[in-house]
Amino acid sequence: MDTTLQKAPTSPGKREQTKLQNRQLIVAAARRVFAELGYGATTVRDIIRATPLASGTFYNYFKSKEEVFQAVRDEVALAIRPRLHEERMKAATVEEFIGCSFRTFFEFVADDRVNFRTIRADSTRVRMDSPEVIAGFEELRNDLELAIAKGLFPSIDADFLMAAIVGVAFEVAERMLQTGSHDHVAAAEFATKLFIGGIRALPAVAEPGVISRNA
Amino acid sequence: MDTTLQKAPTSPGKREQTKLQNRQLIVAAARRVFAELGYGATTVRDIIRATPLASGTFYNYFKSKEEVFQAVRDEVALAIRPRLHEERMKAATVEEFIGCSFRTFFEFVADDRVNFRTIRADSTRVRMDSPEVIAGFEELRNDLELAIAKGLFPSIDADFLMAAIVGVAFEVAERMLQTGSHDHVAAAEFATKLFIGGIRALPAVAEPGVISRNA
Amino acid sequence: MDTTLQKAPTSPGKREQTKLQNRQLIVAAARRVFAELGYGATTVRDIIRATPLASGTFYNYFKSKEEVFQAVRDEVALAIRPRLHEERMKAATVEEFIGCSFRTFFEFVADDRVNFRTIRADSTRVRMDSPEVIAGFEELRNDLELAIAKGLFPSIDADFLMAAIVGVAFEVAERMLQTGSHDHVAAAEFATKLFIGGIRALPAVAEPGVISRNA
Amino acid sequence: MDTTLQKAPTSPGKREQTKLQNRQLIVAAARRVFAELGYGATTVRDIIRATPLASGTFYNYFKSKEEVFQAVRDEVALAIRPRLHEERMKAATVEEFIGCSFRTFFEFVADDRVNFRTIRADSTRVRMDSPEVIAGFEELRNDLELAIAKGLFPSIDADFLMAAIVGVAFEVAERMLQTGSHDHVAAAEFATKLFIGGIRALPAVAEPGVISRNA
DNA sequence: CATGAATGAGACTTCATTCAT
DNA sequence: CATGAATGAAGTCTCATTCAT
Questions:
Q1: pTM as predicted
Q2: How distant is C1' of F1 from CA of D31, in Å?
Q3: What is the mean pLDDT of residues B21-46?
């Protein structure tokens, strides 16, 4: 095509503006593409293709795919972090502290799935949770439902409980390894107590009027 | 005289043995490499390089990187799933149900970090948890410690609590999106109640001698 | 699988027979596969897959794909050559000489398309006659039909005439290059005279009773 | 002062020029390599090696070997087709129709062997006309020379006649199979009459002074 | 000889990055 | 600065052939 004039700025002196605008164009495109394909599967070409810009232009703004990924993440994280922090600072009770955090976070996720996917970023075109792993999660859910049916547990949303157990398990395990302590007994005790206490508290919410009574 | 039958194998299954051994060689190498580089960043070449075998040999056993990854994951998942399920089935109380699960899981993680990393598999050569995201986690931990110091919270391991909150937040969010309900209010209520109840139950663990008593 | 006994000869002393039989198995499979995929696209694996034999066995009989291809071709060529030669030797007139050759050849082709394809062997999975080349052939046919309609030509099967012109053109050209003479004027004169004489003789056959009359 | 507009190209289309040139470079190299090795045996690597360009550059112009092959073929076919068609359209007699076609075609072949080879494209690194097949052709030529010596045939260039017979045989056979009629009797009759008439007409050419007399 | 897994050269192709325009 | 073609390293995968059993 004719490459001669098409990039003449719309009005003189707006170069700074154009620069910022181009950067935003790239970051926005990157966010969409990362959310869809995951970090590993997206290529710089995918990003610039989602942009009216040329491939070379990308490198005027970012050194690499990694760098733009950081930018996207930072942007997302920076969008929610201050709000969470502020609410926690204002909290006068445990209920407020915990409740505000979760409410804000889940609202954010529900509103903007794309950004959430970008933060997680562990999705790739390849299904990361293999059938066997997923089967393990489902098995846990079934076991929970069974336990509820048997009266072992109060009536709780098994889906969410399963997810919570899995989330705590993996994240606490990660933390355990990171801190270098490797005290798996302490980790297990922590998680166990958390859930036992939590489970006792839960049904009151799920089914108002029914007091948890598993004595 | 007759040379036709001389090919009766000297020992039963020398070749079968080699085959199995090679398959194990590949799976073991894959496990190591996936754990180190993450799924996205590891190449089939990386795997065979971690092996005394030739590149073509890989394809005698697996059609692709994806397939060997499944094999690794399945192996790991299958190693722990039956134990978890069995223990849950034998559980007579909530305490046993929850406690056994976590104890077994964390023990497994502590024993075999490589396998744990493989299950997670969300690590890549690129640091997925960008500084900003990590900063958000640390901020939460600081806020928790502050809250504990202010007497808002009982004295809990802030590291683990932070990890638990993050784990529940991301995993329940994921579940929320997957089930299609997108009911973020319910998700937030669930997580909030879980932690409020759990936090009340926790200090007894952190400080032995104090019996949990939240009646 | 169990490799121990399955290749025991059906009866002792038949080894020579088995050898010949295996060779035939391979040649027959090769003929089918070459005919279907063309030389370039077929692999040795394709051939042995069309056989109950193992890949290594192939190399007990042929050194390469090229060699088995030669064998197939030779077999086909040897099947028809003696018959053609014999008939030509017995011919007492030009009519017999030419007629017998063509009759035998076309009968062979019609009977055994697979073998014909193998002899040609210029077919590959890729369409060798590109649209443009085919379009050139069709254009010639159309021009011929037009010429017939205009009364320029007698009424002849335009399909066959087109094929004959194309066949002579390419084959004589090839010959011209091979002999090193490169006398394209002589080649053109030869082909032209051949067809002019031939075309005058043709209609009598196509439409019995109508004498060619293009004066 | 303003550096924004400095990228107005110093000369119109320096890059376009390079692009076209590179495309031609690739097509020209492809033509040479295809002519030498045949379609099946040439690889994209062979083509780019015959070029000062880098491997990846090939894929900026063509998606595959097949695509560049089409380009080469189309170019060749398009170069000769219009001329042939035009001459046929102007022909007022059979002699002109046939004669012009062959003269133009053989001239083209003699001038540009490389292009001819590309159109044929049935040559591969492997000799497609195996010894046996060639022997069959030579046998036919010998038989023809014998027949001429015996006075059965008039004195004709046996080389060209053999080539013409072979060309008609294979090409008409192909056409017979393609049209689906499989009427090998009609095919044989057609070819036979063509040659009988043609042979009677031929000597006039070979030996000037002798007027063809096939009344 | 039959077997079939191992081999490794090499084919095709993608893609992050550079650089002339 | 924008452009987009060129680059070439590196990845995935195939396949003819070898060789231990």
A1: 0.72
A2: 41
A3: 89
